[in-house]
Structures are given as C-alpha cells and as structure tokens.
Amino acid sequence: MQPAARLGQATVALFFNDILHRALGSWVPLDSWLGFILAAGVHLFLLINVVAVGALIFIWMERKIAGRIQDRLGPTRVGGKFGWLQTLADGIKLVAKEDITPKDADPLLFKLAPYVSFASSFTAYMALPFANGWAAQNINVGVFFIIAVLGLEVFGVILAGYASGSKWSLFGGMREAAQVVSYEVPIGLCIVVPVLLVGSMNLVTIGESQAGLFTNWLILHDPFTFAVSFVYFTCAVASVNRAPFDLAEAESELVAGFHTEYSGLRWSFFFMAEYGSMFLVSGLAAILFFGGWNGPIPIFHILGWAYEQGETTWKVTGYIAQVAGVLNFILKATLGVTVMMWVRWTLPRLRIDQVMTTCLKYCVPLAAFCFVGAMIWKLNGWVSPHDFAPNTLGHRFAEVREDWVLRREPMASGQEPVANENAAVLGDHAPLSYSSLISSSQEASQ
Amino acid sequence: MNPITEPVTVSHFLAVGAVLFVCGAVCMATKRNALGVLMGIELVLNGANLNFVAFGSKFLRSTTIGLDGELMALFVIVLAAAEAAVALAIALNFYNNHTTIDVDHADELRG
Amino acid sequence: MMLLAAINPHSLAFLLFALLACGFAIAVVMTSNIVRMAFYLTLSLGATSGLFFLAGAEFVGAMQLLIYVGGTLVLLIFGVMLTAQARFISMKTSGAEWVMAAGVGSALLLLLLYAGFSVESWNKPRADLSSLSIFDARTSTPIGLALSGVRVDQLDEPSEQLRRGMSGYLFPFVIISMHLLVVLIGAGYMARTKRFAGRLAVEQLAVVAPRARGPRSSAIMGGIVSGVFVNMLLAVLCFGYWLSAAAKAEEQGGMSKLLGQVAPYLQSAADWLCPVLGLLFLANVLMLLVVYGWQKWGVVGLVLVTILQALAIGNSGLHPAVAWVFLVIAMAPVALLIVLLCSGPRPTVWEQMD
C-alpha cells in the first residue's frame, strides 16, 4: 500500500506508519494505530497553533484597529513601537490571576463551561481545509459538520450563564442562546447555495471547483450568490456574537454578560473560543465564496508547480504550492476577521428585538430568495463568469439532473459526465430510456 | 470477542443501543421532573437510532439494509425534535398553571 | 508489544465513544440535579454522534449534532431554566421505586444483550474489512437522491418489478415537512406568553421524604398476612398436585390418600388447570404485597386475579357450578379486605394509598 496512494485521505497517518514500519519492522503493521495517533498529534499541534497564535495576533489587531478608528493609537509600549507583545503580557497576567468561583455557582458546570465553548470551536477546525487536501479530517459532509459543531458553542455560553449564579450572567446567556440558535437558520440557507452550485458538501471539492482565475470564485457565479455571501457574513457575525450583535457581552448593559464571573484563564478560554470562531467562519466564507486557498491568478499552475488532478507522487514544488495556498487562505480569513473588527467599532449595538427582527424578517427571506434565484440560474445554465476561464484542475460541477432516472440512455460522447466522487457513488450506470422502460413492461405483461 | 483487537460487529452497536434504551426507560419511569422524563425519551430514541444505523452500516456486515437504516434514523431524529418541542410546550403550560414541574402533582383528573 | 500491533484503531475509538455514551447515559439516570442531567445528556448524545461517524453514517452523525444536540437539547435547557423553581432544585424518587426500576431495567438490559449477541450474522465482523476504508463512506448523495425519490443504491436490484417499485423516500419526506410545519405552529401557539391573573407565589418545595402514612388497623394487617399464607399454601398444593399427577405413571405413593379423595373430582379437568391456578395464587401473593406497599392497584389486582381463576376453572372442563362456587368463596376475603380498607377513621387507609 503506497503511503501517497490516497492523497488527502489519512496521508499523514499512513506516512508515519510507513516510517515506523521501516524502522521497527513487523512490530508495527501498515495500518497500526500508532501512525494515526502521531498524525492526530501533528494536526492537533498545528491547529492549536493556528487558534492560539491567531488569537494572540487578532487581539492585538483588534486593539490597534479600535484605537485607530477611535482616533487614538492603541498599545504602543510592550514589545517596541507597535506593542506587538501586548497580548502576551495580557496572557501572562491572566494566567497569574486568582481563580475565583462565586459562592452561588454550580462548581462542576462553572468550571466546565469555558472548555465546552472552546472544544466546540476547536472541533470545527478539524474539518477545515487549509490547502488542497490539507484538512485534519477531510469529512465528506464537511460544511454540514462545521455548522453543526459551531452550534454547540452555545452550550458553553448557556452553562456559563446559568452556573455563574448571577442574574446578569443568566440574562446574557439566554440572549446569546436565542440569538445563535435563531441565526443557524439563515446560515444554513446561505451555506446551501455554494453546496448547490458545486454539488458536494466536501470543502476540499468546493475549493477545487474554484481553482484557476478569480472569475471561478463562487461569489462571482451569479448575482444571487453575490448577495448570499453578504447575508452569510452578516449571519456569521451574529452567530459568533460580534458587534453589532454582541448583546451577550454588552459591556454597557450587562456588566459583561455571560462571562461576568469569569476571570483569569477561564475568561481567556472564552476569548480564544470567540476569536477561533471568528477565524473559522471567515475561513469558511473564504472557501465557500472567495476561492479558498486559490489565489486570484493561478501562478503555481502556470509555473507547473501545483499538483494536477489525480497526481499523487510527492514533489517539493507541489509542497511549496500547497504552503502558498495555506498562506492565501490565512490571508483571506484574516481579511474577514479584520472586516468584523472594523464593523464592530463602527456600528452601534442592536437590541435583542432588533437582532431577532433582522434574522427572521430580513436574513431568512433574503437567503431563501437568493437560494431560489441561484437554483434557477444553475438549472437553466445561464452565463456566468465561471465559464470564462477553465478550472485548472479539470474539476466539473456535479450535475445530477432532475430527470436522471428517466433519461437513462447510453452515454453519448457529447454528454456531460457526472463529476468525480459522485461517479464513484453512482457507478457507471448507463442511463436507460423511458421508452425502454415502457417497452419492457409491455413485454412482461404479454 | 475482544473489543479492542478485533473489528467491531453489529452486536457491539446493539449493546450500546440497549444500554441507552434501558437508561432512557428507567429515566422515564423514575424521574419526577417532567423534563427528566423528556430526557429519558430522547435517550430511548437514540438507542433505537444506533440500532438502525448499525444495521445499515456496510462496514459492519456484508449484507446490510443499506441506506434504509440511515434514512430511518434521519426521520427518527427529525420527529424526535418535533416531539420534544411539543412536549416542552406542554410542560411549560403545566408549569405556568401549577407552579411546579413535578409530575406527581399532575393528578387532578384522577378518579 | 504484540498488543501494539494488534490494537485496531477503529475498535479503540468505538470503545471510547461507547463508554462515553453509556457512562453519561447512566449519569443522566443517577443524578438528581436537572441542569446536570441536561449537560450529561448533551455529552451522551455527542458521543452517540461519534458512534454514527464510526459506523460510516456521516450524514446522520452530522444531523444528530445539528438537530439533536444543537437544537433539541438547547430547547430542553431553556425549558429547564424556565421551570427551575429554586437554585438547583432536585426532586428525589423514593428508594422503593429505584429498586423496582433497577430490577425491571436490568432484566430488560439482559434480554436485549442476549438477543443482540445471539444472532449469527450480527455476531461476526465483516470478513473483507481490509478492502474498505471508513474514510470512503460517502452516503450524502445517495441519501439526498433517495429523499427525492430515486433509490440509487438499489439500481443493481435484479428484479425489474422491484426496481420500478422502489419509490424512494419522497413521500415520507413531504409528510414530515408538513408535520414540522404543524408542530412549529402548534408549539409556538401553545407556548406563547399568557397573562395569569393572581399568579401564585413560587413555592419552595422541600426535598421530598416518603409520606408518613397512618397506621393500619390490626384487622387489615392480619388480613394481609393471613391472605399471604393461605395463598402460598394453596399454590403449593396446586403445584404439588400437578407434579404428582404428572408422575402418575411412575408412582402412586406419597400423598395418595389426599389424591384419592380429590382425584375423582378433578378427573375431567384439563391438564393446564393446576399450574395455572398455582401461578394465579402466587400472583395473589404478589398483589397482597403490593397492597402492603400502599398501592391501590394491588386491590384491583386481587379482584382481577380471582376473576381470572374463576374463568380458568370454568373453561377447564369441570362443571360450571364449581367455578361459581369458587368465585364466591374466593371473593369473600377480598371484599372483606376492601371494606376494612375503606372503613376506619378519616383519612382511611384507602385514601392514603396511591
């Protein structure tokens, strides 16, 4: 079994197993659990770095951006002129703080709540691809999984609000739970549009389908998808409780909302969860609408460095191209996070009834309308910038048409084939024709 | 059969489903809080779902009931969510009327 | 080191998730704090979702997380917080109920485990497992197509008739869409905010100790005890007669004198009469114990068992008058017990039973 035979499918684990097999001989078979554990450890380390270092940088960025928008400088002392290490200093302070548990708090739930929040935010990173095939776990229903797991973050908030034993916390927790759960609906509708266009929920496939020139990006596919990307971004901001939707932590109303009673390291877990979720939904927007790890111009494809479709042997230039893809992706996600911060310090906070109105009266109908529009556009095959430049990976959108079963004739040469992984699922069934169905039934009845 | 070294079979999944089912049934029978009873119902339905999925999984047996297992589990999940919503509305109404959520106090109609 | 080679990672992951799911389910039953119950349920259902992923049903696993854990449980927790009367209220169930529940529960569990492990085709793992990979479980497209009416997984069905009859799951899909709409409207209407005139103040419910029930008169206690004894004696007699009648061919010794007196009357009776009567006498004993345990259904059971016994006698081939005589004789002590329970100083023993 070649380690690189299945690119992107447990490659790292098989790689480790191969090395261990060569080193330790028959003690370690080729599918041993050791390789999986090592691979999991590597992925864990990398993702923790993304979350933690990302949180470090984003908090610094937030303070700088907030300062500039408010016509002041922000941190300028720690670590040189730009205050680079301010967050590190804050982190050290938080770790050294006293661990206070309020008297009325339920001790188990109080202590568990930040970890639940952080765990759900981090679990979603497992399915997020940073480059073509480079996801910790390339789940076939990746989009669905991420949205499902993001919805679990609300548990941490509710538990924190309830277990703190204070009414401010309880109000903040309840408001946030209502908000996050309500906004799952328009987010789901918005997510379905790129899935509809590409024909797969696999995030790697969605990224692959946007390879090539920037006209392949799904945001430019049709005006409805363009609108949907903004609706998605708005709902994502609401879903991670960033201003103007941040009533849960409304500093001017509720002291600090659900995390009033949290100090020190526990509070920092909540904030790592929040910044982690911000990066995650921005990254998801990048993959779904903005081309993911693909740059605006396919430089590495022109150079010949990138992996082509079906190529499985490892090459250094391909590795460099992948790393460039990672950098691309992180850049796009960071841009998304920056926009979130920009919006936070510009717009005033919404009341809870305004938040609910926005969700139910504006976002949901708009998302539904755009969904229908995108569906009609795709069904009719109207012109789209997507047809301007070819997909550099040769990827075709999956097309399972509505009359697939009835239209089953032998595959003519000019016919549009069914795309990649669905072919494996559906097999090579040559379509029958409806007339042959009727004729065979007539034969059976004779 | 050693569950660590040998592959998992349908029976193992059934065992887990059985434990969940029995815990849910005991929960339904013994809890006095109406929401505790509701949680028992959720556990029961999850045990059943595990069974469905185990029978439909092609990694556990060669001949399976295929997609039917997963689809039935899907429908069960959806219907359980709907039923939890209605049951919760009933429980809330009961609480608003009697100021208690104890099901032992729901005895006004008895003969 | 052999173990190192032999551990199957898939099975290890299964064991981990299974222990989590079962452990937290048991914690749900054992704890009395409703908020912790909800939290443990969340963890148990999350572990179940992991089990779904391990079985290759990734779509159902993601749906479980999204709908069950992320929706239904959030709803439950909201409900818990809206109905909590005091901080960390706990309503305890009494010990007797725990014992009964544990007994029935463990019997059911043993039965299910036995059934689960007894079928051959469920017991054995798949033979050619190494040719598959759990990473290749791609079920979302076939599920989507099945929900639109096309069963793409059954395209290889050899029979043409069966293939054309497989309509997919479109009809149930539309039905549950309507169902969900109805539930949405109904639950939203039922749970709307209402105005309550003169709303009671929130009671502080104490942790419930078992209710102190009044003393029963010695007549009642004597009746129960003597009833237990007499029924046990009659049950032993019935079983003894049945066993000795079954061994009639081998030996006629032992209780031959009593048998000789009774046998002519019972010649025409069916064979099943004696064991059935014996079982029903034992059931009577159980009902009397339940009456002792302050449950009203024990009295109902006493009446029912007597009627069943009379029916059994009537249908067994003896003269119907025997059945009537038996009914009257057996009902007399039951009626006496009921009269004793309902009489006496207020509150009567009958009113104190539940």
General description of the model:
The complex is a heterotrimer of chains A (about 450), B (about 110) and C (about 350). Chain A is mainly α. Chain A is built from 15 helices and no strands. Chain B has about 110 residues and is mainly α. Chain B starts with 9 loop residues before the first helix and ends in a 13-residue tail after the last helix. Helices cover about 70% and strands about 0% of the residues of chain B. The model of chain B has no long low-confidence stretch (mean pLDDT about 90). The longest helix of chain C has 29 residues, at about 220-245. The chains are: A mainly alpha (about 450), B mainly alpha (about 110), C mainly alpha (about 350). Chains in contact: A-C, B-C. At the B-C interface, helix 1, helix 2 and helix 3 of B face helix 2, helix 3, helix 4, helix 5 and helix 6 of C.
The assigned CATH architecture of chain B is: Orthogonal Bundle
Please state roughly what percent of the residues of chain A sit in beta strands, choosing from under 5%, 5-15%, 15-25%, 25-35%, 35-45% or over 45%: under 5%
**Overall number of structural domains of chain B:** 1
Distance between the termini of chain A: 54 Å
The Cα radius of gyration of chain B reads 18 Å
Query: What structural class do the secondary elements of chain A suggest?
Result: mainly alpha
Q: Low-confidence stretches of chain B at least 5 residues in length (pLDDT < 50)?
A: none
The amount of helix of chain A comes to 55-70%
The average pLDDT of chain A is 80
Gist of the model:
The complex is a heterotrimer of chains A (446), B (111) and C (354). With 111 residues, chain B is an all-alpha fold.
Notable traits:
heterotrimer; B: 111 residues; mainly alpha; Helix Hairpins; 68% helix; elongated; C: 354 residues; Four Helix Bundle (Hemerythrin (Met), subunit A); 15 helices; 0% strand; extended
Write the layout of secondary structure elements.
The complex is a heterotrimer of chains A (446), B (111) and C (354).
Chain A: H1 11-24, H2 33-69, H3 86-96, H4 107-125, H5 142-150, H6 153-163, H7 167-198, H8 203-208, H9 223-239, H10 265-289, H11 299-303, H12 316-344, H13 352-380, H14 420-426, H15 434-445
Chain B: H1 10-30, H2 34-56, H3 67-98
Helix pairs in contact in B: 1-2, 2-3
Chain C: H1 2-6, H2 9-30, H3 34-54, H4 58-83, H5 95-118, H6 120-123, H7 140-147, H8 160-165, H9 170-190, H10 218-246, H11 256-266, H12 273-292, H13 297-314, H14 320-342, H15 349-352
Helix pairs in contact in C: 2-3, 3-4, 10-12, 10-14, 12-13, 13-14
